[in-house]
Design brief:
Blueprint: E1 3-5, H1 14-18, E2 24-26, E3 34-36, E4 56-58, E5 81-82, E6 96-98, E7 104-106, H2 121-131
Antiparallel strand pairs: 1-4, 2-3, 5-6, 6-7
């Protein structure tokens, strides 16, 4: 589940510095506004306890990311990695996955030649939003 930053944000920037995936960025607005990119947010929540005004909340529109993508947390894909939004399929936009020692491949379409027919909830939301 990605995070939302409330209007009570004072723009101190401590969250942006703490974010390991650069999901939190400053807009050019004045006063300073920070936004969370839900495709880059890996739900580590390192930013949350650092916020001096408790401006973070869960964004219910996005699924929880378990670091390796929800389907990858099952035993079926044990050891697989998720690109966590850094690598996206150029054909369908889904997250790319990598088997142990393998190449990045799409979990949804046939890019990478292996069709798994499943994808992480974040990819599903993006694919649904862009295809409707």
């Amino acid at each position: 589940m990605a995070l939302l930053i409330a209007p009570s944000c004072i723009g101190c920037g401590v969250c942006e510095m703490a974010c390991p995936t650069t999901a939190i960025t400053q807009t050019k607005a004045f006063p300073v506004i920070y936004l969370v990119d839900p495709l880059l947010c890996n739900d580590c929540k390192r930013c949350v306890p650092l916020c001096p005004v408790d401006a973070f909340s869960q964004d219910p529109a996005w699924a929880v990311c378990h670091g390796h993508g929800c389907p990858l947390s099952s035993h079926k894909y044990e050891g697989w990695e998720c690109s966590e939004g850094v690598e996206r399929c150029k054909e369908c936009g889904a997250m790319m996955w990598k088997s142990p020692g393998g190449q990045w491949e799409c979990s949804w379409c046939r890019l990478g030649e292996t069709h798994h027919g499943t994808t992480c909830p974040k990819s599903r939301k993006v694919l649904t939003t862009t295809n409707s």
